Amino acid sequence: MKTLLILFVVLFAAVSPQSVIRAQLCLDPGASITVKDGTLFSAGGGLTIRSNATASGHLADQTTTGVQISGAVNIERYIAANGWHNISSPIATANTTLFGSNSLIFYYDETLVQNDWNFGWVWHNGSMESMRGYDLLLEGGAVNVQFASADPLQLHTGSYAIAVYNTTHPEGEIPERKGWNLLGNPFASPIDWLNAAGWNKAAINDVVYVWDPANDIYTAFIGGSDPIGINGATQYIPSCQGFWVQALQNGSVQVSNAARVGIATGTPDYYKKTRSVYPIIQLSVTGNTGSDETIIRFLDGATDNFDQNKDAIKLFSPNPKIPQLYTTAPNNKLAINSMGKERSSLEIPILIKGKIDEPLLLDIMTLANFEIGTEVYLKNTQTQTLIQLTEGMQIQLSQTGAFATQNLAVVINPSEAELQTQKTPFIVFFNQNGEIQVNNTTDESKYISLMLYDITGKIVAKNTFEIVSVLTWRPGTMKGIFVLVINDSGNIFTHKLFNNN
User: How far is Cα 160 from Cα 162, in angstroms, rounded to an integer?
Assistant: First the structure.
């Protein structure tokens, strides 16, 4: 009966300027009601919104006057077991006692931070402020928190604002650690970061960061005229979700009912992605303990410096075991790096922080929209080794291999001089027997290490040989395009090979 009632309300609200429910309104996980501005909606028997491990119900009140509810309200929010969670309250009277005596909860005070990120954390016990984000540590099993009030007027609706800070200390402060503020979605529905009418973001960079506790990483979504996200980020901030912003100055952030949306898990249209039209390179790095992404893109009006509302500062995971990928602009580390028009010999360092003493996999997720003839390479800046990149390619990284984790850069159209450094004393080809034949033009005895990559960047074979003039190597029966990397006493040479035998 509840499902039928919910469907009836949705249809009735769409065709009538006024909808009234005399019974209790209950929204099960995945169910959603959107009340458009200019309509009236009232529930005479109270409101319950349920949540479980897979979904939550939503009431997206987009009106300027607010829906009318008589009776108690109870907003559930499922929180998974263990770990840190960024949360917020959908009612004005919530208290930290909701989370149990074995939990820890903190808010973040940017004004306390100097050069240590941890200085900003303040333990909290008491009332939860509207639109404030909190960091919750659950000890034990999952919980389904009940944000409940006998007074329906305590349910958040309308417009909310909260102060944000970017404090400069006399002793100085590292730029990447300035201006971080933990806010919260105050509503019992998701909110849309791209709905300009629903936000005032004048004091912040137009990027929203959400902590993903399952993967120990921050997602990041940049708004503006060219929105894009990494690590699974979308424009929607879930209900009861804490989120991070970076203030560029002291001020406030405001959100209103206009930003609210009714998203259910089974509503795929909200999650469709359109492919970017500007040149873009999207990379990910994966290790045994996690993964991370970064984006380099070329936009009209962007520069090589930090560009407000076009670049996203990197917000690092506190977990040192997670490999974290980023690029740089002067005095800044970037998760999303927007630059001006691509140009030849442009070299962009790629940096990895965290767990780099294990083999990592670099995935070329997106490489698109460059002008015809533009070539993009990955470079080992220590050995000057270059390998041309293609979308979908995967390259194995290590501390000592041809592509070391600490010496990487992306190069757009390397110069002829850079490509000349790849000239090699070896002549290499697949012979008619399907063997790799290496001819040493110096005729000097030497030991060389060979590493064979397939077209995706995966290592398919490796070996070490002594060579005087000629050696042959059969790494296996295979056909296709390959890259052979030869390490000659620290001098690295690459050869593209084709085998059709």
Answer: 7
